[in-house]
Amino acid sequence: MNTASLVTREILHRRWSFVFGTLAVMVSVFCLLGSLAVLESFDRSTENELTEMNAETERILKGHEDEIRKAMKGLGFNIHIYPEEQDLSEIYSKGYGKETMPESYVKKLADSDIVTVNHLLPRLTQMVEWPEGEATVLLFGVRGEEPIAFRGPQRKGELIDPVAAGEIALGYELHHRRNISAGDVIGFRGSEFKVARVHQRRGGIDDITAWVSLSAVQEMLGKPGRINSILALECNCESLDRLGEVTSEIRSILPNTQIIEVESKALARAQARNGAKSLRLREKEKFLEGRENLRQVRAGFANVLVLLVSLLSLVFITYLTASNVRERIHEVGTLCAIGIGFNRVLQVILSRAVLMGALGVIVSLPVLALSVDLFLEADLFDLIGFDFYGWMILVISVPLMSGAAAWLPAFFGARSAPAEILRND
Amino acid sequence: MTEEITLEPVVSAAQLGKTYTDGAGQVVALSGVSLRVNPGEFVAVCGPSGCGKSTLLLILGLLLKADEGVVELSGNDSSLMASSRQAAFRAENLGFVFQDFNLVPYLSVLDNVLVPTLAKPIENASGRAEALLEEMGLAHRQGHLPSELSAGERQRTALVRALLLRPKLILADEPTGNLDRDNADAVLSHLSNYTESGGAVVMATHDHEAMKRAGKRVHLDKGVQVESD
Question: Which of A13, A340, A424 minimises the CB distance to B87?
């Protein structure tokens, strides 16, 4: 006869309360490890989604990038060259600037060995009154392109003069209201011009624009030899920082200028690419935020559940131990009378609770591993990620907590006065 | 020259007093009770129910502290013993037999008999237990649970448990109280046999047949020792 034998026989004798206590421990361990496994599984599945999302974003962006390279290579792009002192906000608000620069700049540029620009078109623009037509007109002084010297006969198709000397082209609002047709001769600010072209409605500032030869406009505005911008067409660059490349080349020739890019299809594509990128980034951020929120909710719920279930289990073990002590009170009295000391009696009572904890945690692990495999299709031990010491701490701490829950009733049971129990008087 | 041999008493109690306090007030369980038990003596503590017999046995067995008086067990003043020492002393020197047997319900007869070895292991405990069970006519019952035994068998099992560690003193509280005459006689015979082998027995009883078996009787009435013979 030894203590282990006594404890074992007692457990077998009152097996159901031991089974219920063990089940309570199992439920606690299930809740604890189960919630950890579910949270980790959630993290992993959302991490996979995130990886897929990143891969998809990369794929889309790569597609856009290839597309923009192709677009840039095929299409080229257009730029405006303005005097350095020109306030660009004026350009954006009025469509032209008041600052001017020498027309010779065009020639200087054309005579250089510039490679990023194909066509150069000087312009002089100003909003003027048209007394004969009783209208305000955007007057555009234009001329044919300045040929780029070094290209010689291999240069791309030369642009012809848009408007010949003595001729004028009119926007829709200017000719339509006045029944002016191509071929008519009209008076414009004291001079006569033959109407070379009348344009269809464009729905913008072009509808109140009049195009006249550059020299005529310079004379008309009293700005001989001056222009306020150069339009450079079909610029080509290999790099994605095309504006930087072309700006660098132009400013090395015309240092007192500034360059802006005209909206183009390629630019729109670049913007679409950037838009797609930021959209994907926003989607990703939203996903991450949603994931974090959901995780926090789940973690919070799991914490409360684990705490509550553990507490209930401990209370249940306390109750079971108290019931066990009450049932065994004569046995406890007899053991004391026989000469078995307080510590040994306490050990006998507590061993039951400690064994409940030990059996509960040991049985829980394979059952939980099987459940995780079935329902989450994952490996419990991989999901939880405890190392050897982590598992050891769990396996040791659960029986200890179970024993701690049983401590008070066991202590008072072992301390019961045997005389009170055994007295017949 | 005559040599007088003085035996050291197994237990010696002088002027014991005990008062219980409960909701109804104070109850005097014992007052001025003195007792001396020598080895080989069979002492019966007699009196009606509630006269303080069990209280006296519990005090003698170091399970209850007297409010007044002194108890010496084999020359040791019980009041000077710590509770752990008292437990060890009980294991080594005292055996208990109760009216309700107080067997451990989930242990077999043999294991019940061996329970005292948890407190004081002895060599060949099983062999001695089996021999005692044989002697008590319980050899065929040693694998049975207490619930499968008759009252007489249970009490004999309790008696074997008390005898296993060869105590100097057996304290038996109404050992025949739940037994029929034949079983009571058997238990009393075993107790008598034990005293013949040098052990001492103090038995609380109100059974007249049982009283007759004792060599010395202490009569109590309402906690007061009225006579001894």
Answer: A340
Q: Nearest CA of chain A to the CA of B54: how many Å?
A: 6
Give the C-alpha separation, A138 to A177, whole Å: 16
Say which residue the tokens 């170091």 belong to: B62
pLDDT of residue A35: 86
Are the C-beta atoms of residues A255 and A108 closer than 8 Å to each other?
A: no
- Distance of residue B20 Cα from the nearest chain A Cα, in angstroms: 11
Quick one: tokens of B215? Answer: 């060599």
What token pair was written down for B191? 């107790």
Pick the residue from chain A with its C-alpha nearest to B222.
A425
Structure tokens at A412: 């008072």
pLDDT in tens, A311-345: 998 999 999 999 999 999 989 989 998 989 889 99
Residue B1, pLDDT score: 43
Burial B118-141 (b: 16+ CB within 10 A, else e): bbbeeeebeebbbebbeebebeeb
Q: Is residue B2 part of a domain?
A: no
Q: What are the pLDDT digits (tens) for A58-112?
A: 887 777 666 665 555 555 677 889 999 998 888 888 878 889 999 999 888 888 8
Please give the pLDDT value at position A202. 85
> What would the pLDDT profile of B101-124 be if each residue is shown by its tens digit?
889 999 999 999 999 999 999 999
What's residue A352's pLDDT?
94
Which pLDDT tens digit goes with each residue over A265-292?
A: 555 566 666 676 777 788 878 888 888 8
pLDDT of residue A70: 57
Domain membership flag for residue B142 = no
Structurally, chain B folds into a number of domains equal to 1
Q: Which of A6, A12, A422 is nearest residue B118 as measured by Cβ atoms?
A: A6
Q: What is the pTM of this model?
A: 0.64
Task: Tell me which residue range forms the domain holding B203.
Answer: 11-101+152-228
Mean residue pLDDT of chain A comes to 85
Token pair of A136 as six digits = 């305000």
In a domain, B143, yes or no: no
- Min CA distance, A337 vs chain B (Å)? 7
Q: Given CB atoms, is B101 within the 8 Å cutoff of chain A? A: no
* Chain A contacts to B (CB-CB under 8 A): 1-3, 5-6, 9-10, 12-14, 330-331, 333-342, 344, 417-419, 422-425
Chain center to CA of B100: 13
Token duo for residue B67: 């409010």
Q: Does B14 touch chain A (CB under 8 A)?
A: no
Report yes or no on B169 lying in a domain: yes
DSSP A328-376: THHHHHHHHHHT--HHHHHHHHHHHHHHHHHHHHHHHHHHHHHHHHHHT
- What CATH number does residue B182 fall under? 3.40.50.300
